[in-house]
Amino acid sequence: MVRDDSKSENAASAKSGGTARSKKREETSARIVHAARQSFAKRGFHGTSTRDIASVAGTNQGLITYHFGTKDVLWRAAADNLFEEIGERLFDRLTQPQSADERENARESIREFVRFSAEYPEFFWLMVDEGKNADERLDWLISTHLRPRFEALSDYMLNALGYAEEDLPHVYYTLAGAASLIFAVAPECRQLTGIDPLKKETVERHADFVARLIIT
């Protein structure tokens, strides 16, 4: 019996083509999400159109509809993406300590959060913009991302670091502002102080300062 190699070749070619198309779809989706993060953070939800996002992403508006359907779904995907990164760089580190010294583990987690804030100032912009209005998007942010992380961080601060329970909200918001504001208003900082907050040595100095401020 003679084997029909053409069928095997066609099957392999189809599989390869499908993999390439799948990879391209994933890359396009990721590019749109990244553009959405920046656009929503700078202009807010209502000030941003899917046309704006398509322009930043270098794609067409139809692909946004294809991948995400609506602007609201895309906004949630952008928020999910940001919180996934912050989870890996801050909260996961707290649950996977690098040394036996809890306070030093906490300081290094804070340093990493500061580095994240310098790299992605859109996180602070987005949170300030959405935190101003008690609406459906804020409800979703709190229930999906903020409350679980606030409770985890509060539990850690209370039990591992000995903070008083009544101080936990103040610690949370002090950390959020201290870690992020200098990078969120980088142009102001440059003109006012003469330093570039996004230079690596400045980021590291600020990271050390915030870590010492929160964890004495």
TrEMBL record:
Top-level taxon in the UniProt lineage: Bacteria
DNA-binding feature ranges: 49-68
Disordered: annotated segments: 1-30
Entries under InterPro entries matching the protein: Homeodomain-like_sf (IPR009057), HTH-type_TetR-like_transc_reg (IPR050109), HTH_TetR (IPR001647), Tet_transcr_reg_TetR-rel_C_sf (IPR036271)
Cross-referenced Pfam families: TetR_N
Domain HTH tetR-type: 26-86
Keywords carried by this UniProt record: DNA-binding, Transcription, Transcription regulation
Annotated GO MF terms: DNA-binding transcription factor activity; transcription cis-regulatory region binding
Designated name of the protein: Transcriptional regulator, TetR family
